[in-house]
């Protein structure tokens, strides 16, 4: 008679997940958006858990996770909408619209390194969602957006 040892895979710990998103990246996003440490945030995309945990560790007051293929039960206002890991252009369009609805006129939208589009293409899609580019970081492949102001729309 032989014994077979079966090991069950344990899910990664929250701290291990948070380490996947560097503290520096979260600090840079908070700094570039000029938001307080206790900002309310929504992370939009497919693999959002590491970002959610990192923002919670950073001290954000409330953090929500939204997936492109799942209905949103509410539309609570947030100071920061961080779009990560979108798989296609239609998903990015949906994410930009969802972010615009949640951030209103004062919040910031950050689009994190979208492999499906260039910065110029993101800018064009953002305009469709009534968002303006206010900052970009080519090295980090990050674009910061804000609601289009009435003055900008008149131009």
Rounded mean pLDDT score: 80
Major sheet details: 6 strands, mixed
CATH topology: Rossmann fold
Number of domains: 1
Q: How many helical stretches?
A: 6
Which bin fits the share of residues in helices? 25-40%
> What percent strand?
15-25%
Sum up the overall morphology in one term.
globular
> Which class of secondary structure composition applies to the elements?
alpha/beta
Low-confidence stretches: none
Number of strands: 6
| Fourth CATH level, the homologous superfamily | Vaccinia Virus protein VP39
Side-by-side strand order of the widest sheet: 2-1-3-4-6-5
Distance between the termini: 82 Å
Description:
The protein is α/β, with parallel strands linked by helices. It has one domain: Rossmann fold (3-Layer(aba) Sandwich), CATH 3.40.50.150. 37% of the residues lie in helices and 22% in strands. It contains 6 helices and 6 strands, in the order ααβαββαβαββα. The protein has helices at 14-20, 23-32, 49-58, 89-103, 119-128, 150-154; strands spanning 40-45, 62-66, 80-84, 108-112, 131-137, 142-147. The protein has a 6-stranded mixed β-sheet with strand order 2-1-3-4-6-5, sandwiched between helices. Strand 1 (40-45), helix 3 and strand 2 form a beta-alpha-beta unit. The longest helix is centred in the middle third of the chain and has 15 residues, at 89-103. The radius of gyration is 17 Å and the shape is globular.
